[in-house]
Specification:
mainly beta; single chain; 8-stranded parallel barrel; 44% strand; 3 helices; Pectate Lyase C-like; 451 residues; 12-stranded mixed sheet; Immunoglobulin-like
Length: 451
Amino acid sequence: MTTIGRLRSIPAMTWAIMLAGLAAAGIVVVLASVADPSTTLTASFHVVSPVSGGYHGRYTIHNSASRPVSGWTVAFDLPTGTTVRSVSAARLTRHANHYQFTATNREALVAAHGDRTFDFDTKGSGTPSNCSVNRMSCAGAAMSKLSRDASPSPTRSPNRPSGPRSGQPPSRTPSRGASPSTGPTGRAVPVATADQLSAALADARSGDTITLAAGRYEGAFTTVHSGTDGGPITLTGPRTAVLSNPSGYGLHLDGASFWRLVGFTVADSAQGVVLDASSHDVLDGVEVTGTGAEGVLLRAASSDNLVTRSWIHHAGAGLTVSDGSDRDQVADNRFGPDIAAGYLAVNAGTTGGVVSGNTFDGAAVDAWVAVQGSRYTFTANTASGTALVAYRVSGCGNVWRDNRSDLGGAGEYAVQVGDRPECAADPDVVYASNTVVGATKGLTDLPVTVN
């Protein structure tokens, strides 16, 4: 299979977080025809304890696959006379007696062979029925599926289109024109020029869906507005919608939380997508290329974000997490080729992140991944090409499972830690499930932990 083929087979993140708002805004949403590892999820229920007038229940979501799954939605019915009063670790929507629980950003990733749980309290003693997880039976049998006739993020071709610069129309005009229409949960805002995009970002409101037409948008695009947990702001467009700013940030979220950035491209910019003090944002299927510095930068306490199914290549640096940005997840992305500095850097002062299912492809000057942060989890990543080390570590409490590295004969270890007595109380752990080839000394300079 080609590299692009492998990229297209990456598991699709559940779109349940966005579907309701998009549909209400009048936009038809169809999912990509890609492999669906969500079928590896099952969910089981049990009553934890009785509470006044009802019970405290818990669902455990289990991933039986050797790859992580990004995103889950559990739905079930309750009999008449029983209702859900409160929920933790999930977002709840209800239609009559049908309840749907969707992962929050922090709880979205289910590790390979791992579990996630959410709890709820009821009024009434009736128990759930007709349970589904990601539209499959909680026991694993297929239920009805969403339409898969087309993809929201088309071709991953690196070719750059010619199209609208500031004030000029693109090659394709959106069907609704340039004025926003209002839906029950937010506005549909079609964008066709750089000026329209700047105006939409300046006026963004909770629940809005800003849709880019194909073409090139050149300018300084920034927003300071936030969505909400139940009404995120979506900026979406095809891969042929290209944001560019040779003198600055391709797209800047400045104190802007609860955004969904879906499908478009950021190219030929000093830096790509930059988040400052912005949390609970999702970058899904975004391509970043031709940047002088980082393709994606999360800084200034930009926490609980998810970067998934995206492609960063031909860049000065890949993705950097810094300055107190905690619990960020980097899952199922492709990094490379031709990234001049590090492919991924988690800097000191950051903690609790997840790096899972990514591909690091190409030559690195030193390491593909620099790990200065603490208590990160690295699972099911693949690194290949040439590098002195796959993961160069100076943080504490980090864990590696099921990663594969090929140093191309250029380096000593996949995971190199060194002698750091400051981590004695919170050591890094490298499990035997990791593999390495092309290393002159082996997997790691730490004692390997048996799974």
